[in-house]
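Quick one: structure for this chain?
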Amino acid sequence: MMQIRIVNTVTVMLNEMLQVFIGCGSCLENPGTDGGVTVRIALAFGVTVATMAQGLGHVSGCHVNPAVTAGLLFGRKIGIIKALLYVTAQVLGALVGSGLLKVKRKVFPLVRIRHRTMRSSMRILCPVIPTADRLG
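Got it. Here's what it folds into:
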């Protein structure tokens, strides 16, 4: 019973970590107000939640965020100990996911460049990614 609870808790943490890393990571690279950016961010969150629910939902009961866990707790579908474990794992997973995003931003920093067809006052952000010819 204890091994199953540990596996479920780790699964919930992994789920939340990937949601934060992929979903919030889709918001970082190209800020803007056009419809394409909004669609990309919505699809990133939606596909991530759907994939995690399909792939890991059967292990932990599809606790995709603390609101779902709280709803199941108040609906008396899970106990208080399990709910506390899952919410703790979700918070830790979110912290790990945001930490990975911070590391990613340090390893691949964003640089401001000017695009030739844009006005000089407009700038776009692009990641600096080392290529094989620059590495050695």
